[in-house]
Amino acid sequence: MDSHLAGDLARLPALLDSTRRRATTFLDGLAERPVVPAWPAPEPTALPSTGIGLEGALEEFARRWEPGLSASAGPRYLGFVTGGVTPAALAGDWLTATVDQNAMSSLDPTGQHLERETVGWLRELFGLSPAHQGVFVSGATMSNTVGLAIAREWLGESRGVSVADAGTAALGPVRVLSGSAHSSIAKALSMLGMGRDSLTTVALLPGREAVDPAALERALEQAQGPCVVVANAGTVNTVDFDDLRAVADLKRRHAFWLHVDAAFGAFAALSAEHAHLLAALDQADSVCVDLHKWLNVPYDSAVHFTRRRDLQARVFQNAAAYLGPLGDTPDLVHLSPENSRRMRALATWFTLRAYGREGHKEIVERCLACARTLGQAVEATAGLRLLAPVRLNVVCFTLEHDPTPQRLAALAEAAAPEVFLTPTVLDGVPALRAAFSNWRTTPSDARRAADTLRRLL
Known about the structure:
Elements: H1 3-10, H2 12-28, H3 53-64, H4 87-99, H5 110-125, E1 133-137, H6 140-158, H7 163-166, E2 176-178, H8 183-191, E3 199-201, H9 213-223, E4 227-232, H10 244-249, E5 256-261, E6 286-290, H11 291-294, E7 302-306, H12 309-316, H13 345-379, E8 384-386, E9 394-399, H14 405-415, E10 422-426, E11 429-435, H15 443-456
Parallel strand pairs: 2-3, 2-4, 4-5, 5-6
Antiparallel strand pairs: 1-7, 6-7, 8-9, 9-11, 10-11
């Protein structure tokens, strides 16, 4: 055994304790750490022929890389829709690496059992019925891709072919309809061979990012056959929701697969004020939910639900002598693009078991309060303009005068040590958006963000 490797094994408890102390120091400093520090990238080095052991690697990491890391796990990283990691999720993730399970096969089944229990908890959290079965994937993009892959197989079924066997050439032209599709939808269509051009944008309700149900019905009539509808439960810019009940009701008159992108909007189910927005979510054929957003588990975690597990297994089955058969309860290896992966569900299991529905409801409601606080501050600040109502957890705003991308970028860059915001465009107007989804964030952080913006105007 390599001498450094043998030495690290002999000193592993002490070295892990050193790692714990470094992690704790980093986490303790999140509240005051520059949210996005101005730190130049280190000069790259060549692959070392001789190692320096874990202790040396820790020291070098602290010197070369840690100073440039953002406080993305902290309370004022409001760019994108980024959660942090709850204490229980952190413990679960450490243990995931410790036990190092590949939870894909019934030949070594405990990881699969834990994932199925966790998926059941999530299904209940979001108000889905047992008709929806789920599987963990890496993020919302992959969850949307899995949903559209199953939809593609459903389109084939409606035309008497199996796309999984015969390929997309057997499918013929495809139409995918959506009002405000997330960019990952077009990416998924590209990867799945249906093509970005298959996506048709349907007219929106006036002043909204929500699809106009009447326009959607007209588009379905023009489709002249089965197609796919991607509905939104929470758009990126303004967290607008399509009227899921109205969309689902169209299935009585038209044949289409209903995929709902609820990447972070699904968590509205935990708010009594907003749960009605998801009242018809269970009528979807497939649903995307991203867990490393508002559930506050580490990155690389999302869930995909579908009513048609049979089609899912037809798409993703992996026939090999060393794998279990499909059967009535397929192994996880037959349900997603991956043949192997870490036990993703464990961090989610830990945070749900540790804090339950009520604990995560409190996180959601506090984030909603933070978004309202910042939204009200924007409305009260001369020089800023709120571009849309604060519907859930995102505040979309711009400069009152001459809101060019360059001026907004300069404002965001100047604010970055205190608060991280991301650029966007809403109805042709360049803007900034602040998304509240971190379990550490409090209304005082929202006020601090507002104070920073006022100071920089």
